[in-house]
Design brief:
Length: 381
Amino acid sequence: MEKTIALKGRIDSTNAAQTEQKILEEIGDFNGKLLIDASELEYISSAGLRVVLRLKKKNAQTEVINCNSEIYEIFDMTGFTEMMDISKAYRELSVEGCEVIGEGANGVVYRTDPDTIVKVYKSPDSLEEIHNERELARKAFVMGIPTAIPYDVVKVGDCYGSVFELLDAKAFNKLLAEGVPVEKLAKDSVDILKTMHSTELKPGELPSKREEAIGWAEFTAEYLPEEIGTKLVKLFKDIPETNTMLHGDYHIKNIMNQNGENLLIDMDTLAMGHPIFEFAAIFAAYSGFSCVDTSCSARFLNIQPEQATQFLEDTFKFYFEGESEERIAEIERMSAIICYTRIMRRQIRRFSVDDPEHKAVIDFCKNYLIENVPKTDKLYY
């Protein structure tokens, strides 16, 4: 049971007492959820804040909704957002006719004008995820990782989006289409990757990718011969926990060039762990998802299949410069095992195994693991 009370105009020392009395009269003996609608509230002073505080003490289910940015900032600066639920009124934005510049599992990225992009999350219940990504982006930025920080949250239809200011920025796949060589972009990509991987975090500062990946292995093991499944889980558990920062979804659609500076976007997958997990995700983006349909990764990245293949090869070559070809091939195979473990789990959980296309992917992953796990001693370098 809910009851909504609207606050309007200005609430300060001149009218706080009268406002409180009027609210109490309207509430009466009501003891359900009390929603204070601040959509028409223009200003609230400390006297007004004390009114809200007393309402919260009287009714623990009191929430403030539909705050404009200025009102929300007052509540946030005074610590009210830590004491009670306070939500913003989000600006509505249409992406109809806007250019799609990227898409991932969680959202679609649109360019709304030459200076602005918005990432629209696919789930309508994504506000917590959006705020988490913003905090992760801020954390990465403070640590020296070149990234774009969202400056606003908007409502797009029934969903929500994060707004970024990227002045005439272009994703690497666009630059590739404009003729910038794969080798040049791969080197630039590796430079950012090394910067990220050289960033040491405190234990527990970001989610553990190792813990997540062990879950992939334990799930997938149930669909493999017992001996191979048991070894697969052990190989994952043997990967050491490290404090290395990982992007988690590192590919050319998530790297933007703005006036000569390269920036990362899509920071919601930020985690910590051994870099092999990063390379497994990179392998998946450029090759792994094309295990049956050889053009799948290229379509996702909006590039040619041969460009996807070269970008993957160049990424390993430049990152592990100085290592032998045999050693690089070994690391790529480790990445592939982790990649196909994850993809097999994903296919089984998301799709029907009766569908020929999805069954073909599952069978490919399964056969790859059956062939390669027995001859693999470890999954880290």
